[in-house]
Design brief:
globular; 6 helices; 7-stranded antiparallel β-sheet; 155 residues; single chain; alpha+beta
Length: 155
């Protein structure tokens, strides 16, 4: 998917109504107050069967090239969204992670992000938040890129 595709997808997500319950929607999930979409990720890199270790253990140079492509897609998207809406608010999720560890329950769509990201670049456009989410494996070449559009304030 190209960066132009990503921008059209984000614009479509901003314009769509939110469902009353959680549902799969294209390449992501939508629910009350939010839409997510996966832009570049493991399922795209390694095929649908994520359990096929042999396929995932392929050529190391190829794996790192895929990670580089994911990072390049992330950087390009951040650049274009910054040109469109100005600099994002970069929000640390550390305090929310600490609160979750202490037992606080976070609502969707923030719970998954708080559990898996250190920070998020966020734009507030009209009544919606837009977040570009980069998930990277601590060890290994895994990289996933997604976007969140929501009316729910960050934790």
């Amino acid at each position: 998917m190209t960066t132009a595709h990503h921008l059209r997808l984000i614009d479509g997500m901003r314009a769509r109504d939110f469902p009353s319950q959680r549902v799969a929607s294209g390449s992501g999930v939508s629910g009350p107050g939010f839409h997510t979409a996966y832009l570049h990720g493991e399922e795209e890199q390694w095929g649908e069967d994520r359990g096929d270790v042999g396929q995932r253990d392929g050529d190391e140079a190829e794996q790192f090239e895929r990670r580089a492509q994911c990072l390049a897609a992330h950087d390009a998207l951040l650049t274009l969204l910054t040109l469109r809406w100005g600099a994002p608010q970069v929000v640390s999720l550390w305090s929310a992670q600490e609160r979750m560890t202490a037992g606080e329950v976070m609502a969707e769509p923030w719970a998954e992000l708080v559990a898996s990201c250190e920070y998020l670049p966020l734009w507030r456009v009209e009544d919606r938040w837009i977040a570009v989410v980069l998930h990277m494996e601590d060890e290994g070449p895994g990289c996933e890129l997604s976007v969140l559009v929501t009316v729910l304030d960050p934790p």
